[in-house]
Amino acid sequence: MPGPEDFDFDLPAEQVAQHPSPSRGDARLLVLAPAGAAPPLHHAHARELPRWLPDGALVVVNDSRVVPARIFLAGPDRSFELLVCDPRPGQTAGAVFTAWVRGARRLRPGDILTGADFACRYLGVVDPNDPRARRFEITQGELLASLATSGQIPLPPYIRRTADATDAARYQTLYASHPGSVAAPTAGLHWEPDVLAALDLVHITLHVGPGTFLPMEAADVRDHRVAAEHAVITADAAARILAARREARPIVAIGTTATRALEAVAARHGELVAYDGPVDLVITPDHRFRVVDHLVTNFHLPRSSLLMLVCCFGGRARVLSAYGEAVRAGYRFYSYGDCMLVPRA
Q: How far apart are CA 212 and CA 226, in angstroms?
């Protein structure tokens, strides 16, 4: 029975990146060679990605845009900090949204929370098994507009500082175009215009929710669940990826978010199709990869479903060995950290 302890590693606190690299391409890139190749690892930089990709690669990116989804609203007797889980265009009066709330135990159904030109009514918990997510009904204003004027970029809790003006630009990919994520698809943070111009890109969308990064608590990781996230794969994107596969061109996913979207849709339908809807796939050791051949990804939290995904993709022993080398070599970890290129095992 695979457990969370199978996807664990030790990391010195000083290697958790608190700020982005001076420029996007300065991030380090750890390149894993195919199984059995020597040497097994290469040290490079993010701006060198094109030279390390296989010939003919089609590169899939997640173009979701991070929303300043952390907001403070005034309640009946105190203010509450909300992390909106599902911000979308068009959420106006009558629409229901979910949020993680600091101090939620002091809320009562029917309580009204207010901000600048915005108000919502507290409805209660979404799922008794997940007390973090709470439901609200908008009674005044438009959610995205309120977040744009009053919200903050929701940096992860392991970044121990308040978001600033730098984060508004750097905690966002250059190709982000569809607002809806509350956490960045961080593998995409490293690519500058000249690198992107050198790649054959196809865009898909997965709006990243906060539950993605929660530690796995189930004794058997196959029982771990994450809240559904919204994915969009257009007909053109699906056609380009399928055509590349027919031509035996390698598919490179930039990030675990792009990987989860592609693999979730392919697993549900037997092959990749155009899709617009929820996905909640957790990639566990029994998953059969149907689309992605190479993965570019940041270094992830221990005991997380994202690290498990990378281990399932590249081989657990090989990936954890590479993590050990990254620690020894002083790589920077997590959202603003360095990245790695992993071929499928």
A: 6
285 near 93, Cβ under 8 Å?
no
Query: Residue 24: which residues within 8 A CB-CB, separation 6 or more?
Result: 46, 47, 170, 174, 189, 190, 191, 192
CB atoms inside a 10 Å sphere around CB 93: 12
- pLDDT for residue 58 is more than 80: yes
Q: If pLDDT is split at 50, 70 and 90, which confidence band does 128 have?
A: confident
Count Cβ atoms below 10 Å from residue 265 Cβ, excluding itself. 23
Question: How far, in Å, CA of 3 to CA of 218, rounded?
Answer: 7
Residues contacting residue 47 through CB under 8 Å, at least 6 positions apart: 24, 25, 26, 192, 194, 195
The angle at the Cα of 84, spanning 210 to 273, to the nearest 5 degrees, equals 60
Half-sphere exposure of 81 (CA within 13 A, CB side): 7
Rounded Cα gap, residues 22 and 320, in angstroms: 28
pTM over 0.90: yes
Which position has the token pair 């600091």? Answer: 102
Instruction: Report the interhelical angle of 305-314 vs 256-269 (nearest 10°).
Output: 70
- Angstrom CA distances, 243 to 61, 197, 269, stand at 17, 21, 17
**Range 276-279 contact pairs with CB under 8 angstroms and sequence separation of 24 or more:** 276/231, 276/232, 276/233, 277/230, 277/231, 278/228, 278/229, 278/230, 278/231, 279/206, 279/228, 279/229, 279/230, 279/231
Report the alpha-carbon distance of residue 191 to residue 255 in Å, rounded. Answer: 12
Given a contact cutoff of 8 angstroms between Cβ atoms, the answer to whether 71 and 84 are in contact is yes
3.40.109.10, 3.40.50.1970, 2.60.120.10, 3.40.1780.10: CATH of 4-66+164-343: 3.40.1780.10
Instruction: Quote the tokens at residue 213.
Output: 């990064």
CA–CA dist 147, 152 (Å, integer):
8
What single-letter amino acid sits at 140? Q
Q: Which fold is adopted by the domain 70-150? A: Thrombin, subunit H (2.40.10)
| Whether residue 129 has pLDDT greater than 70 | no
- Where do the structural domains in the chain lie, given as residue ranges? 4-66+164-343, 70-150
